[in-house]
Amino acid sequence: MDDELTRAQFDALMNERGGDREILVALLNECVGRWPWWDRSWKVIEIREVRTRRLNTLQRRVVVNGVVGRDTGETLPLSFTVRVWGPGRVRFEVRVVDALVGESVRDSDPYPFGLILCALMDRRGLSRRDVAHRCGLAQSTVAKMMAGYMVPRERGLLAGLAAALDLSVGDLRAIAGLPADD
Length: 182
Fold this sequence. Notes:
The protein has helices at residues 7-14, 21-33, 113-124, 128-135, 139-147, 155-165, 169-175, and strands spanning 2-4, 43-54, 59-69, 75-85, 89-96, 99-102. It is α+β, with helices and mostly antiparallel strands. It is 37% helix and 27% strand. Strands 1, 2, 3, 4, 5 and 6 form a six-stranded antiparallel beta sheet that branches.
């Protein structure tokens, strides 16, 4: 769930040393209240700690620890993880006790193609530079494939990479998790 924050909400979220906790409680209750699976009898009742960490120039991760409770007097520990982009775009994840509720803010794992590519290159004694030269690619492109952040999909790239690794294009397509060529 992506949301836009008001300036007051942003300030309350970024302030580790207190800030306006009522605004933060209202923001978190509003956020979880929109989730269809959230039991609305549980409300954020207390914020105990706010920790911020800058991930890069535009992103920050904020961990908000507190308590949720019901009218019946039951309480449970709460941990929100909020990823903030720029001046106020956010994505929420919440943990109540050990149960994860909401959308994950963690990036997906790299596709295993990179691990297999690295193993094939090692077995054949090929460096990143060798593969880049044989395929006519930049070394950074080969590095992205090795890290699993890029899977070759274009026919020319698949053919060049298959030739460099001494594989058939069909085998490389299978390794990359692509459907058989039409």
